[in-house]
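In response to the reviewer comment on reproducibility (Comment 2.3), we provide here a single inverse folding case reported in full, input and output, so that an independent group could reproduce the run without further information from us. The structure tokens appear first.
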């Protein structure tokens, strides 16, 4: 399976590359584009400042450019937190997308968004200040209306970016359950 894995607002930190290595060890071909051109952040505020300097439109252009050479093969798009929105946007716009794996984040979608039973799996902390219950419920309904086949996995007590062992949010048990569930999802595609 070809997977396009996008980093969080922190940039291409070691946890992103470790996740890619874990997916590769399971037999997947993983692309990890650097949307920040080498910049990383130590805090979410620093990461958001990098994102703001680059601009949302430019980040999306960089993601499209990175994915374009591989999209004809039926990519699975995946993203951490902020870049889950990038992955979601690309997956919903790629009629050959094989799946969408969202880690710690979602994004709004256009009212006219339409996919043909796109498999989607979301992993999110419960509660998560960046993904409150009302938002997640509305997101789920909009994704289903668009035609996606959506699974949501919530992890009580975990912090927002609980899969990154270098951040205070890290939750080893929730991270391991996430990766086991995500690998099973990818195998099912």
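Designed residues, in position order:
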């Amino acid at each position: 399976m070809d997977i396009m894995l996008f980093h969080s607002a922190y940039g291409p930190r070691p946890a992103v590359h470790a996740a890619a290595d874990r997916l590769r060890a399971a037999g997947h071909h993983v692309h990890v584009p650097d949307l920040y051109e080498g910049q990383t952040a130590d805090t979410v505020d620093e990461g958001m400042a990098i994102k703001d300097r680059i601009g949302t439109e430019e980040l999306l252009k960089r993601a499209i450019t990175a994915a374009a050479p591989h999209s004809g093969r039926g990519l699975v798009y995946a993203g951490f937190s902020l870049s889950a929105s990038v992955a979601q946007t690309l997956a919903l716009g790629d009629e050959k997308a094989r799946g969408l794996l969202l880690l710690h984040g979602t994004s709004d979608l256009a009212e006219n968004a339409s996919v043909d039973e796109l498999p989607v799996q979301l992993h999110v902390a419960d509660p998560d200040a960046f993904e409150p219950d009302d938002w997640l419920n509305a997101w789920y309904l909009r994704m289903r209306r668009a035609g996606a086949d959506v699974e949501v996995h919530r992890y009580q007590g975990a912090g927002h970016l609980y899969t990154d062992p270098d951040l205070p949010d890290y939750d080893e048990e929730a991270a391991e359950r996430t990766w086991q569930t995500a690998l099973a999802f990818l195998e099912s595609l």
